[in-house]
Amino acid sequence: MKKHYLAALLAGVGSMGAQAQSSVTLYGLVDTYIEAINHASAKGGDVVQAGSGGLSNSRFGVMGTENLGGGTSAFFDLEAGFNSNDGTFATAGTLFNRTAAVGLSNKTYGALSAGLQYTAMYDTLIRYDPMGFAPNYTWFPTTGASDDFSFKARLANSLKYVGHFGGVGIIADYSFGGDAGSLQSDAAYGAALSYDYAAFSAALAYDYRNGAITTTGAWTKTSNWSASVLDVLGPVTLMGGYEHYLNEPVTGASTIAALAFAGVRYQVTPALKLTTAYYYQINDTAKVSNSWMGVFCSDYALSKRTDVYATLSYAESTRNGNGSYTPVGVTDATAFADSQTGITVGIRHRF
Fold first, then answer.
1. Under a CB-based contact definition with an 8 Å cutoff, are residues 232 and 265 in contact?
2. What is the phi-psi region of residue 72: left when phi exceeds 0, alpha when psi lies from -120 to 50, beta otherwise?
């Protein structure tokens, strides 16, 4: 009799587990590098330094799903960034600075989530940037040190929808400003539309955000739009696109700028991947010169989770008619001269 009761209890527990089918996963990535750059200060000179996040920003997180039945699941994702070279948080005073979201997903209708989440522009362009938003080196999501016309990478207090219908992908997001008396103050929204057919992919994306409302009842308006394509030809992937930026301040002149980018990835062997990338920054602001950067990266996989890499980049600012120039850097924190060279070697491990 006791055996029958025990068997019935275990069967009930197994049935509950089968219905719920919950899972929680701890994951992360550690990326540490050594970098050498020239023109490293206003006085010139070279510097050799250690850092975190050469190809990917170091992070750890926990995500989970629960099967609710009928093709619908609940999910959450909490992700924190940290600096692997010194152990500090990437954002002081904030634990989950990368993602903090919860939502519902349906196999037919897509997913709707709320919290701190990546924008439609970010989710789209990371697929088409040859360097995949690698901090060392890309001019996404910021675009060099000379002038930063970055789109918004993440939105707090946001709702986000992601859906896939055959080869068509749709992303939409909206962030509540949260200011009393104005739905527009600090609000932001964006959307993206992508199409995949065989080895070809193309996408359009839009990002818009308001500044805080002023005493006059106005606010700064900033928008970005982008168009991108990629095509996979055997071991070679061709990719490129264009991003446009418009900033309309409450007072003063508007700023219009753009970033054109292109690149090639070549999977030489299953373990070795080579990437070349080119970025050209355009700005119509008076006395702000255009600039460009070329990148070459070699990435070698030691295993499915561990790889080593070496990256070389060179950035240069064009000259204005009077010979002046806007300082340019290979990252968004190193602009002191009309050119800069950066070399990075690092190791990355996923868990």
1. no
2. beta
